[in-house]
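Thread title: Can someone regenerate the structure for this chain?

I was given the following input by a collaborator and told the matching structure tokens would be attached. They weren't. Posting the sequence so someone can regenerate them.
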Amino acid sequence: MAGNNPTSASYYIQHHLQNLTFGYHPENGWGFASSAEEATEMGFWALHLDTMGWSIGLGLLFVLLFRKVGRAATTGVPSGLQNFVEMLVEFVDSSVKDTFHGKSQLIAPLSLTIFCWVFLMNVMDLVPVDFLPMLAQKIGVMFGADPANVYFKVVPTTDINATLGMSLSVFALIIFYTIRAKGVSGFVAEMTLHPFNSPNKLVQALFVPVNLLLETVTLLAKPVSLALRLFGNLYAGELIFILIALVGLWQLPLHFPWAVFHILVITLQAFIFMMLTIVYLSMAVEKH
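Best answer:
Regenerated them for you:
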């Protein structure tokens, strides 16, 4: 792929970090973006088809795999896959019981889904960086596309739109559980009467704007931190794989140790996203 401009390593990097974008361009109408500039000009409603495709596909893989194991589960000698799934379910279940201090039938399945889905999206980072983009280029050429204009990212969590979308879903659940546990009045009181309070009503009234500002920042920081932490770690990991791919003959000796280390990173980031979700939802149901 670097052959499109063999003298430019920066072109190679930018090409691998650009999404396959479909949207409406003010001058060219509906279609695929042929450059990062065109993708930007398409605006907010443009779709990253590679991110959407891989995230939905990996989500379906998780659902179908666990459904298959659930239907074939036996009380006799379990298969290796059943053993693995049971260990994973027990691990997530114990994490929820230790961290979530409320009562909800949603939290455990949600946590299991988050961990497995984020892990599957992260693990795409271990696929050789040129393999799937080059395959996409060949398919694009079959349909008459210029290979230099075919972009294809295979790691959904290196797209801030994907990580922010997941974190905003968690944020919506935080608001829902807070209002369900404390009511609208309790939610408003939590936002306006903490952390500063006073028995004097006049002084307390003066504290309300300050409390509202601080609590709003704290509340909004939760989804932002969730999204940026996952995106930053996976984006950096993907960028290192791309840089390793530029070194030619030294690619394999450098790729293998980084891939081994990155297995820990992708697992840890899935675990952190899951645990922070449980913690934030537990904080939402706790009554002060």
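Residues 201-245 form the longest helix (45 residues).
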